[in-house]
Specification:
The structure is a homodimer. The first copy, chain A, is an alpha/beta fold. Chain A has seven helices and eight strands; from the N terminus they run βββαβααβαβαβαβα. In chain A, helix 5 packs across helix 7. Chain A starts with a strand and ends in a 7-residue tail after the last helix. The model of chain A has no long low-confidence stretch (mean pLDDT 93).
């Protein structure tokens, strides 16, 4: 079974005017996506931001739930959050994955908008995850979506989730959950 | 096509000690689930709490995004939130649905835990939503899950989402997204 990696990226993103910006870390994204990623057996959940103080916030949230008082509470949140790692940029996370896996991952972009990028279907990505092929690394954006240069750097992109819906503005927390359920929902993750 | 209704319930819920409590409304649940429900074509998203001041908070969030300044911004959030209604209890929402639809809905509970309740599979519920049968009304809980009496009052329960996962503690925001994608993801919602 191929390993699954997930990242939430905060740069380079578009803002509502289409400008390239670094978005702020949202603590609920750290929590929700950590829980979703762990449920679907992700090996790591990377929260990626170039801003050092934002990475410090991410590590502090992690520490609160994995160390000290909280480990004595009846909460299993720390079990999910301990799989979360703050990183400076995509390159750092790719180096960590290659170091651990011995090969580069199949890098997959996501977007709510149609794209000219090579598409990998949800079923094909699910088949990759059931195979013994290279790890699969799925990137999720924030703000008004990933910069084109970031999508271009990926091997493929997943189709928008509900392209024909009259309203199609899912939160990244919902989009992550739906995407992982579609591609990893039939893996038995008991380890 | 049968109508789809969604509720987030804050009473009667269990707390971590198993006691029956009213949980607090979480604004991010209002937003995220409104966006998910609208994407999957729900006719209404009910936020249900017996606490009047909590309902006032829900209405205030709704008003902020659907009226006044915010309608002039480049945000489509109000389009989702205007489908959201605060209600006092399950009975009030059932009366609203019956009034609008002319018949009672098929009432479906959800839980992260296995249950003795009659199970309706995701595929069977999807088939109901594609049919011209009665509306489907799916309830989501908060805190440590719905009280047994609430589950007993439903016609059926959906199976837990990832019952065999080593970690299975999804946020209600993630669980709602996954559930609606499984049961309503193949409906063309363009209206």
């Amino acid at each position: 079974m191929a390993s699954l990696y997930v990242a939430l990226l905060h740069y380079p993103m578009r803002n509502r005017e289409g400008e390239i910006v670094a978005t702020s870390v949202t603590p609920i994204d750290v929590h929700d996506i950590a829980r979703t990623a762990r449920t679907y057996g992700a090996a790591r959940y990377f929260v990626v931001t170039p801003v050092p103080t934002q990475r410090a916030i991410v590590w502090r949230i992690r520490g609160f739930w994995t160390e000290g008082e909280r480990i004595r509470e009846k909460s299993r949140r720390g079990e999910a959050i301990e799989y979360m790692v703050a990183a400076e940029d995509l390159e750092e996370t790719l180096a960590l994955i290659e170091e651990g896996e011995g090969r580069a991952p199949f890098l997959v972009a996501t977007s709510a908008r149609p794209s000219n990028k090579t598409v990998v279907s949800y079923d094909d990505l699910a088949a990759r995850l059931r195979s013994d092929g290279p790890p699969v690394y799925i990137l999720f954006g924030t703000g008004w979506g990933m910069a084109d240069e970031l999508i271009d750097a990926c091997d493929a992109i997943l189709p928008p989730i509900m392209p024909d819906a009259a309203f199609n503005h899912l939160s990244v927390r919902a989009a992550t959950a739906i995407t992982l359920d579609r591609v990893a929902g039939d893996r038995q993750v008991t380890g």
